[in-house]
Every structure is written in structure tokens, then in C-alpha cells.
Amino acid sequence: MKLVFFVVAIVASLLALSSADMYMQNPRGSNNRLNENSANRRTANRMFDSQNNNRGGYNVGDRTDKKAGNDQAKQYRMNYFQSGTYLTQVAPNGRTELTVEWTNQHGFGGNEDTDPHKQNCNIVLQYMCQDNSSDFAPDDGITIRAGSSTARSDYSRLSSASLKQAFINRRNSNTRADRGLNEPWVTYDDCTRRERNKGLFTATQQMANKNAAINTRQNRNGNRNGYECPEERDYYPYWHPTVWTDIAILAQNESLCSYYSAESFNSRAKGTCVEQFANNGGRKHFSEANNPAACAAANGVWTEYQSMLELAPQFTTPAACTADHQDGLTYAWGLPYDIVKINAFENIVPACFVRPPPVDCEAAPWSRSNHLGNGKDGVQLNYKWTLPYFPSMNSKRCILRIRYNISTDDYDPYDTDATNNAQSPVQENPLVQVGAAGQDLRLAINTAQFGRTFQDRGHPFTISPRPTGVSNTDHITNLNVRGKRGNIVQTFPATEYDYAPSRPKIEQGDLVHIQWTGSNSHNNGAPGGDGQTGDAGEGTGGTDRHNLLQSGNPDENFPLPIEKVTMFDGVTVGWVASGIDNLSAADIAVILASAGYYQCMETTKCGAEAVDTKAQLQNQLNNAPASFEGIMLRFNTPGTYYYLCTRNNNFTNRSQKG
């Protein structure tokens, strides 16, 4: 049977070539790393299927100058402040902007007829958030966490459907507090049972399990990566509900944007089959049916759910829900895809919820093939993400995901589907004949990779309500740090240190949230795979440290003496992690110069955290914390300000300046 909708979806999802990589540089992508001392990650399938080189990625942040070890509460989660009610304002008022940076190996963007690229592509950015928990790492199957073990979460499958308690017991047995978790256990268990989309083109790949959604052309054996559903991973837009919220799709051609916008789960309801456990046991989290007819045959109810930003339980009727609430958000009354209820085996009933904004779609930025580096304009490939506004004012725990899809024009991506599998237009390592004598030449084609998806994800982070003193209309720019310890060869395909973004531009009166994270175990030791091991740099081996001091010009390598620092003149503090009031320009300078080791200049203002009281800061920041929760500054004096990091500005191979 030819499924036209799925055929159309293939254009975004057929990915190509046999070797490529996608690495998120800011926020720091994990590439399935946790806290390894080695250059190679230890467990490639720990959380998700990246299909990247084992060397990529960054360790989870450490909160202090000591390794977090088995205590996840000692890990550092980047904390961003949500946008205000920016949709009611003239841009960019009210927006909190986070610059997402990445490198992709096989080129991207600029695919016009007059300047064709070597392949087709798109990049999809998504996030998943849930209400934050006071428990840093609960022992459950739904709470996002980095874990303290590099081992993958467990999974055991029942041979057939059973009573609800059997699923609860199995979920509780499979999930552990020390294992990292992104997608909930229930969504993967559903994926193992749901029939795969048999309208898709699978070329010459024979599915090990012909029926399950865990088997795809790129993953014919149904290999498990955390609790990620392979079919959902490989295809966008997906045709069933998903826990992921769309941020943006960077398309090879803007003409595709109307399609992506219409099919995004942000805008269009997606269907799934809902069945019930026997004896009023509640909603099953799974069904084998993947279409309405099969669902009816299974005595289920085909149900369409909508993506939600969060519930709005204060509005208890449709009229109250859909009234104009003067906050620029879209409220809807219907069936939200409520993963908390699904995880609790509860039926989802009509309710009021906040819809996410439409997916942002724009033409992809240009990058050249076979190059993990900057784009055409000399800066990292990037997208400026406007963080969501959550009207509940609840702090959220989140994960950011980026996928890189590449394909070729060797077959029609719109009209090639399951009907072409018997006579696939591409074969494994085919021979082609050239010349009058018919000379055979072999092409290197793996049909599992001729059309391919790559992925990276960050470590867990939080999005918090704006603090007192920061208004709904304030524009916040996040200034972070990318890179890890080592020289350019040792860190590759990660990067050396730099500020991110490296050259931020703001308007007078804007707020800048300066914050970074680092690890105490970036030793880049053996095994190093196909690259060089080692952690060349300053200070204690394996440790990331940063600070920020004003300099005179970008080509200078000395910071300005305190009496000549003008960067913080006229600056007001919107928020500081310590909560200390009335910080002076000198206080701000010393906080940033010491990476937060000192909180002010004088004991009368901050007690034991003052310069004149606390033990002396080691001159290479060794006793400073690896992560800096930060300070939010309002810059009121127009000008161009240069700054650098004293520790990582090793002139031979690094230049951490902004």
C-alpha cells in the first residue's frame, strides 16, 4: 500500500553518504559522553543514536573544582531564564536568546540551481521540557537526568501484552537513578510494539523484525540507543505524537517551509491508537496499531493529540481557555499529548493547554563538505533560539536535540516509497560500466546510509522564571563558553575554548547573562580512536576553567589593569547567582575575573566570599569552580568592549577572546 503522506515526509528524512558527523558546540553536545577521562566516549548507545565519531562531545559539567563522581547533585546544569511575554512586543523586546552552535561534516545550505551543493540536507532543532524536580536524579522512568554511570539504561521486553502491574514492575526494574534518561521508558516500550510504517522506502535493507517501529532502513536490526524510538529519530516530520517540541528547521530551500510548518507537531495534531488495560486498569501506553483501521480492529480508539508547551489547569472551560489572556500565547482546549498521564497509565481528557509557537523555518546557512568548521562568514554555524515563555512560572528541566539530515538526488525523494523496494533504484556497492569496452567500476554505496540522519544532544539544563528585577520586556542575550581542554588535534571534533557567541552585538539597555560550564575530567586520554590523545593547556590537567577580563584590543593578550576597566561603568546588575545587592563595577570585575570564586571586594558586603577574606585564588584558576552560574548585566553605555580569558589564552594554539 502506498501511503502518500509518508512519501512526502521522506524528503526531510532520506539522508545520505556513508560517513558524516554532527556536533553541537554550544550548548555543549554530549555525543553520549558523561564524564569519561578518555578521548573516546565509553558507550555510543547510552542515550541516543548519534552515528557520530566516538571522539566527539563534551562531559557533563561539574559544579565545583572537584569531580561530581557518583553524586548527580554535584553536576552543573546550565540555567537559562525564560523569555518574557515577547510575542506581544516589538522584537526583540522580551526575548531570551540562546545561540546554538554546531559543526556538520558534509556541507549544508546554499542549494540554489545557480550554486548547487554536493548533497541535499536539513537541520532540525527540538527540545523536550518537564517540570523541574527537587530530586536531582529520581529512580523513575520519566525524569530527565544525565546519570552517574556511563552504562545504558536496561530494557527487557515482555513476549506478549499483560496486566498493567507487569509493565509497572518491568519499568521499575529497567530504570535506575544512576543511568541517563531523555525519552521516557513508556515511549520506547510503545515503539517496540507499534507496527512500523511499511509505506517507507527501505531500499535493499531487510528488516530483522518486519513489523516493529524500532526497525528502519538505517537501523534494520532494531538496535537500541537509550529509550529513543528509531523510527521517530530517522524521520521528520513524524506522523505520531512525540515528546519533542520543534524549534526550527533549517531547510535546503525555503520553498519547503510551508510543508514543514503545516506538518510540524507544533501545528498539526498527530494520531495514535489508544487501548485500555483489562479490568479498568487504565490507558495502555502502547498499541501495535499504527493506523485507524488497525486500531479499530484491535478495539482501540484512534486519537489525535496536540503538542503542548504546558497545561493551563486554571482554565476549566473551553470559553475561559480560549479567551484573550493578553500574554501573546495561544491557548487551546482539546487533547494535549500529556506524557505524565501516559506514564501513569491515565486517560487523557480534554483540557486547556498552551500551544508551542509554530516551528521556525528558514534557509540553511552554508558550510562546505568534508569540513567540521565555521561557515562562509567565518563564524560557527548557528541558530539564535528564542527560549519559550512558560506562564505557569514553573522551572523546567530540559534537553536540546539537533539532527542533521543528508540525502542525494540519485532517486526521487518525493516519489520513492515502499513500492520501489523490490527494484530499488540504489543497490549495495553496484558496478557501473564506462567506456566502449564496458569497463566495470564499483561505487561505494551502503543503502542503509544512502540517506542518513546524524544527531547530537546536550546535557540536561533548566529554564527558570525571570528573577525579580528583570521585566517581561527585557531582552536577554546569553554569553557562554564553548570548547574543552586540549589543542586543536586533541579536542577534535570538539573545539578549543572560545566565547559563544564570540562577537555578541546588543542594544543599549539589553541584559547579558554570562554563564559557563566545564568539566574536571576532560583529560582526553586513551583510548583515542583515530585521533591524538592528550590535554595540552594551562593549570591542572583535565580541568576546564574560564574567566572574563576586559582587554584593550582583540590583538592584545594582556587584560587592562582594574583602574582602566571601563566595560562595567554604568552597568546595572539584573541578577547575580550569589544574590548580593549593590555590586560595584569593581565587584563585577572581580567576580568575572575569578570565575565566581570571589563574590565581591570587601568583607562588609559578602563576608567570607570577599577578596580580602577568602583564601587566595590560584593564579591559573585551579581552585575556582569549573562552572559559573553567572551574573546578568545591563549594559547602558554604548561602545565596543573586548575581553579575554587569562588561563586559556595560550598564544601558541588558543585565543579565548570576545
UniProtKB/TrEMBL annotation:
Secretion signal, residue range per the UniProt entry: 1-20
Stretches with biased composition (Polar residues): 43-56
Keywords: Signal
Spans annotated as Disordered: 43-67, 518-556
Gly residues compositional bias, start-end: 526-542
Domain of life: Eukaryota
Name of the protein in question: Self-marker protein
Organism: Halocynthia roretzi
Taxonomic lineage from the root: Eukaryota, Metazoa, Chordata, Tunicata, Ascidiacea
